[in-house]
Amino acid sequence: MASSETVPAAGQRARGLAPFLRSQMRNIAPFLTLIFLSGFFAFASPSFATLDNLGNILTQVSVTGIIAVGLTFVILCAEIDLSIASIANVTGIAVAYFTLQESYVNIANVPLPGVAAILLSILLCALLGLVNALGLTVIGIPSFIMTLAMMQIAAGISALLVRGQIAYKVPDLIATLGSGSIGGIPWIVVVAAVMLLGGHLVLTYTRFGRYVYMVGGNREAAEYSGLNVKLILGAVMVISAVCSGIGGMLGVAHFGSAQQNEFDTYLLDSIAAVVVGGTSLFGGRGGIGNTIVGLFVLGVLNNGLDHVNIDSFLKILIRGLILLAALIINVYAQRLREKAAE
Amino acid sequence: MPEGRSPILELQGITKSFGGVEALRGVDLALYPGEIHGLVGENGAGKSTLMKIIAGVHTEFSGRFLIEGQETHFRSARDAHAAGIAMVHQELSVAPDLTVAENVFLGNQPTNRFGLVQWRRMAREAGEQLARFGIDVDPMSRLADLPIGLQQLIEIARVLFSGARIVILDEPTSALSPPEVERLFSTLRRLREEGTSIVFISHFIEDILRVSDTVTVFRNGRKVAETAAATTSKGALIEAMIGRGGEALEHSYTDDLMLPRPSDSKVVLKVDRLSLARSLQDVSFEARAGEVLGIYGFMGCGQQELSRILFGKLKPDSGTLAVGGTPKTFASTAAARRAGVALVPESRRAMLFHQEPVYKNISISILDRISALLLKPAQERDIAKRQVEQLQIRPPVVGLDLGMLSGGNQQKVALAKWLTYPPKLLVLCEPTRGMDVGAKNDVINIVRDLRAKGLAVIVLSTEPETVLSLADRILVLKRGALVREFANEPVSKDRLLEAA
Predict the structure, then answer these.
(1) Is B409 within 8 Å of A1 when comparing Cβ atoms?
(2) Which residues cross the membrane (chain A) (predicted)?
(3) Topology, domain B257-351+417-499
(4) For residue A201, is it within any domain?
(5) Is residue A106 a contact partner of residue A259, using CB atoms and an 8 Å limit?
(6) Coil/strand/helix, residue A280
(7) Which chain B residue has the Cα nearest residue A338?
């Protein structure tokens, strides 16, 4: 009997490169996709592989990137947040609402000093995240449904604030970070990079980050280990909302206006970035590194399709198909990994 | 059995092995029409394996299998079903959100010629069938709204009325209250008169003796006795189940073992009248420092629920527990952990992270002691290495994914999680289940070591050997109530079984 105890060790040593690659498929597949897409567009269009265009791509994925930081936490916990785009929108509108607008903007707004406007807006998105958190953990509403309701609630608040109008002015700090640049690099890219880096550091090097992975990996085991699972789930919902809010504020500055339904496409884009990057929808696997690759895949795809001569209506279909392929790989990779672990 | 009647089912020399381990060795069994055949034996004696062969779940075995004298070989459970064999498993397999009538007719609802379900007919027939069983419920009520015992009766009714000629019941009475057991038995007797053959498996020997015509005893994959129920006794059956003299590799605990005088050290846990609907009734006890308290009972006796309540995973309906401080119940597992309680549940899957390395599994419960904000992986690995060495976990590689370890070693990791900063109270559920002898001994030594360090340890098990090999004091839990305490007195396996 004792000899059977050593079999797994021998098995481990005997494992070759192929099983290793299979277990790493979720990390490798998105990277190969990125290389393939970049190669394809570079070949198809001379204007694609230029330094200028790289800057374009980076700028184009920045807002998605900022929102995707928080969403990565949520998906790592095997939950979902469908309210990210709406919360981004309402936070962007709020920061404009608290800023003095030009006289032709017909909004009954409440002008405040810039710092107060920013803090109030962040407080707003944090509060909305807290509502998500309470619904999920205290009442026990599945996150899919809870955040679906929050999507409507946030959209409703947006509608009430702007009443169909468009606001333009945001506090100076937000305007600079959203549309200014430093040494040729847009500030929004810097912010996105800093937030992605921050998210990565938290997930990799802090106790909280470890808890996120463990709760996502096996929620029951986390509970039997005496972790406060509800607190961790609540925290990721708040983090997601705050990241969305920051993305929303900078987005409004970047686009130059704040209005209803401005961020609608960011819901799908952010989820796609996280999932295409290889973070497991079942939780516990992946991370910010995957999200970054996912962002680039989406960025290259969106940007590249503009560079090649293609029916712009077909673009939507192509994006859908690429997302489907990524989902298939995601689910398949999970299965391969489970097999490799057996 | 009566002369001149031929068996409806006959098994001859059935042998079945799983990966080189023989679960059944040359078993013969004959089942006659209109007979209730009781089956007893310890966990792992081979009862369930044999029943799964009869029900077509296991199709690979050697030996002869005859139905009404015809040699038969089932290829699937569907074949067995077609031959009129039905089985009620120990775990409920009902659809809780469907109505009672839908559950009774699950899979064969009456339909009209358009393929639409005839609801009124279904409700009426379900009501009639259940009434025969002495169950008076509205057939259109949702099953989940009924008490568990009633749900189980309805599931049994479904199988009994499916027209099967041979019905196998695996532990049907463990979740039933005495009047429900009575109802079940009167229905079984009626079915017997109608010619149905019933195999009745139970740990409750009184139940077996009350309802069976014949009783067969299994031990270590062999049939060791077959006798008419009227001519045997509980004591005789227990003796046959356990067997005198050593067939077993390890201490078989058939002789009396003297329990020590109860310790008068500090009370670590005081449980006061815990009750939980249909699981626990007024359970009160104390656990002391430096003492291993064993809680023994059959499957479904409420042990699992009790362990969950102690660790804050489950809330009792009433009652309190006190760990050192004031009496309360824990709001969460995190609160229980902070109060110094640790739990190792019976299922390793429930408490380990199979895709994470060993060291992360070991450190997860103590991370807040190691690091405030930033992780200290080097220290985590050191701690894990010490535990791996101490508990002799193989292979001794803390970076290996947990899923690569064997079951016994995973169980040790589950223990190791709690040992770096020992809790005040350690609750172990089935700590040696499914382990080989070597690993079992390791676990026994670890627990003794912890007791010496002054921990209060509670061991809950459905295996008498586990409790006997570890405990200083033993409580017996029967259908949710504590019925017997063994302390400072001789105890043995048959005394335990007798009490349960």
Answers:
(1) no
(2) 31-51, 57-75, 82-100, 112-131, 143-164, 184-206, 227-251, 313-333
(3) Rossmann fold (3.40.50)
(4) yes
(5) no
(6) coil
(7) B355
Q: Residues of B with CB below 8 A from A137's CB?
A: none
B375/A226 touch (CB, cutoff 8 Å), yes or no? no
Q: What is the pTM of this model?
A: 0.78
Q: Extract the tokens encoding A191.
A: 């912010």
Nearest CA to B181 among B162, B205, B207?
B207
Touching check for B375 and chain A: CB below 8 Å? yes
CA B416/CA B421 separation, integer angstroms: 10
Other beta carbons within 10 angstroms of residue B328's beta carbon come to 12
Q: Do A5 and B336 touch (CB under 8 A)?
A: no
- pLDDT string in tens for chain B (500-residue length): 444 578 999 999 999 887 667 788 999 999 999 999 999 887 678 888 898 899 888 888 889 999 988 898 888 888 888 888 988 877 777 788 888 888 888 777 778 888 788 888 888 888 888 887 777 888 888 888 887 778 878 888 888 777 788 999 988 877 677 777 888 888 888 888 988 999 999 888 888 999 999 999 998 888 988 999 889 888 888 888 877 543 443 455 666 777 888 778 888 899 999 999 878 899 999 999 999 999 998 877 888 899 999 999 989 999 989 887 778 888 899 999 989 999 998 887 788 998 899 999 999 988 988 888 899 989 999 999 998 998 888 788 888 888 888 777 888 898 888 888 888 999 999 887 766 666 777 888 888 888 888 899 999 988 888 888 888 999 999 888 898 988 888 888 888 888 87
Pairing of strands B166-170, B197-201: parallel
Domains B9-242 and B257-351+417-499 share a fold: yes
| B311/A207 Cβ within 8 A | no
Q: Enter the DSSP assignment of B327.
A: -
- Cα separation values, A162 from A150, A169, B77, B270, Å: 18, 13, 65, 61
Residues of B (320-339) whose Cβ lies below 8 Å from A: 332-334, 336-338
Task: List the CATH number of the domain containing A302.
Answer: 1.10.3470
Helix, strand, coil shares, percent, chain A, to 5: 75, 0, 20
CATH fold label, B9-242: Rossmann fold (3.40.50)
Q: Hunting for tokens 């589950």 — which residue is that?
A: B414
Nearest Cα of chain B lies from the Cα of A129 at a distance, in angstroms, of: 23
Cβ of B415 under 8 Å from any chain A Cβ? Answer: no
Q: Are B447 and B459 in contact (CB under 8 A)?
A: yes
